[in-house]
Amino acid sequence: MSSTKSFPSPISILMLVIVFAAIATWLIPAGQYNKLTANKQESFVMATPTGDKTLPYSQKTLDSLEILIPLEKFTNGDIRKPVSIPGTYQKQEKNQQGFLEVLYAPIKGICESIDIILFILIIGGFMFVFNETGAMMKGVGHLSHSMHGRESWLIIILTLVFSFFGASYGMAEEGLVFYPLIVPIFLAAGYDLLIPLVIIFGGTSIGTLCSFSNPFSVIIASNAAGINWMDGLYERLIMFVASNTLLIWYLLRYAKKIKKDPTASLVYKIDGAVMPSFKTEITQTDFTQKLDLKTKFLLFIYVATFLAMIGGVVFLGWWTLEMSALFLGAAILIAVIVRMNEKIFTTEFIKGAESLLSVAFIVGIARGVTVILNEGHVSDSILFYGANMVQGMPPALFIILLMVFYIVFSLFIQSSSGMAVLTMPIIGALAIIVNIPGREIVNSYIFGMGIMSFVAPTGLILPSLALVNVSLKTWLKFIMPFLFMLIVLCAVFLIIGIYL
What single DSSP character describes residue 82? Predict the structure, then answer.
């Protein structure tokens, strides 16, 4: 645990990256591509060093500029940012960034990302208001009680539940509160401590790996890459099914083995007869026997809010303003239903926003890196030289190497939102130039970060292990074969995805 404390925080790392980005503006030649932007589906506007030019809004225009993107990608909002036009890179005068620019960068980044930042803070408020009702704990407790004696099915259902939480809104730290509830159930049923650990930590981790509506990863990453976050949704839903099937199969196989022979437990073999620090004896009164109508309605609102967000984006063209209003309205509705005191509602909402303030700052500060590179006129230069390096590289090799890059790089930055804002503006633009779907760039990012989250000491694995009193050695012995299978599965999905 001490090594984790001594490791720089994501904000410190990002500030160092801003400094390195400023240094890069002194070393890398300045240059810029011509950029193409859709103007309300009426025309294209091509920005050049000598001024803007208006072009017909047609596929013929895209083809003539060698932009290998279907026109409908602009029409339906899949492409939201200016696209670099291949073959138009021109060198410019350098605009080196100094000490003051480094100080300005995170502030400018926060200003440019304010819509995403407010969205994050409002989601935090919504989650704390919902958690104050106790509905989630009651729901999981009732499920555990009703499945007593059918623990194999309970493993399947709970893993899917926690995975859904991870994939829908990015549950991470919130999962820690469920260990005192879940661990006693499986110890009483004759399982070891790895089972509840994998259900909660493994479930949320596999969920974030295939995030289908997680605002802290796929939405922010897609926005930074300049594409619609719904692009690739169906692939991520299929991946959700496939990766959870793999995890549940792997876990049930282990559970069956130790149920038959408790001495086969890796915890028993490596750590001995260890027990967690919290209460592990359960009684019938520990769980709600029956969910009341109000609790069921609250759980329905929780799920319906995320489904409404997806539906709004797909059918109504929603973005951060509408999505933020949805979560704010849902929080108010929940408070009204449970007759929450106004002061308690305000306090919990603010506490929820405070809990994600560091995430919000990470998004803004990471955006500051892009600010430095853009104002130093080297973003396009990095893009130009990167495109030359990978030009001719098989797309399958490129996308696999990109996933490996994210696996390694997320050892240092475990903030999915920070990683997205830091890397996507460059890599997303590079994907368009080398004709790789932007959705696969986003998928390689969430797959890579999701794989590393299982073992990264900068993430939640060490606190989770400390809670259940299991050693890192035991965890690695258990999880490494699964991670190798997961890497293969992710690679197959990425390769198939670039040819669809």
Answer: P
